[in-house]
Amino acid sequence: MNQPRTLLLTGAAGGIGTFLRTSLPGYGYTLRLADLKPVEGPDGAGSLVFDLADADAVRAAVRGVDAVVHLGGISLEDRFEAVLEANVRGTYHLYEAVRTEGVRRVVFASSNHAVGYVPLGGEAPIGSAIPTRPDTYYGLSKAFGENLASLYADKYGVETVSIRIGSCFAEPRTVRMLATWLSPADCARLVHAALTAPGVGHTVVNGISANTRAWWDLAAARALGYEPRDDAEVYAQALLAAHGDPGPDHVDARYVGGSFTLTDPHHRPSPARGHAPQVTGRLFTP
Ligand code: NAI
Ligand code: 15L
Fold first, then answer.
1. Ligand 1 closest atom vs CA 35
2. What is the pTM assigned to this prediction?
């Protein structure tokens, strides 16, 4: 595919949105930024502020762009109704907008939590051609988004790369993230590959850096042209000194989704199933 020139970036005020709106212009893209809240900073002037629940606003936002990088939505576990509105209905509005406006390519921010109950500890690295096995309503919404992308590729020719992102932060924050980290620079490399690879139809890829401790296979992402350059291992000594080695019985060593498998939005965090999670960030939307 010819490189798209103009991109709509939903979720532009969020963590990954902030990384990408800094890095993607360096790849030659012109960005249209959108979020539920105003985008801070000098590049935020002129950004679009709307709720993905507003189908007309979503359609106006995609009009005239070449491709969409869809990051917007709830990024942690939440009540079913909240996830339904932002992630299920919101992503449906996005796909209806790209269909009706003739946009050809979407990069969808899926998550490791779409496959969060897949057990770890097998001999072979885990590829991206596995059935979804969500660990939360949040992960379920990502599985829905992947299936929606599949439907729109087959029925309408809207192409999507769904990236099952591991943990994309400036630095890995936990021992688990020594396996799941996607550095901001590698995130930009992967999104660029996903925007420019020819004939993707609907392709699901795992999204991590070249981590020494990875249990995810990157073959599908590499087939798009992604060449990761970072490795979380440079943070290993400091993280292990700070947190200790959680060991093989810890939930982070048992399931792809780690401690998300222990959350219960009906009762809030619920470590009652055997192992106290190593939680250093929020698991719930406040
Ligand atoms: P974030 O929570 O920092 O950013 C999400 C953005 O979406 C926020 O700025 C928020 O205001 C916006 N948003 C929420 N509901 C909205 C709505 N109804 N309408 C319009 N905008 C709305 O999340 P982050 O970390 O930047 O993640 C971006 C995307 O990548 C999310 O879809 C998340 O699920 C996905 N992801 C992130 C991972 C990570 O490690 N950061 C890992 C796996 C997936
Ligand atoms: C996600 O899907 C979340 O959006 C992010 O905040 C992290 O929790 C990440 O997964 C992870 O599993 O580390």
1. 21
2. 0.95
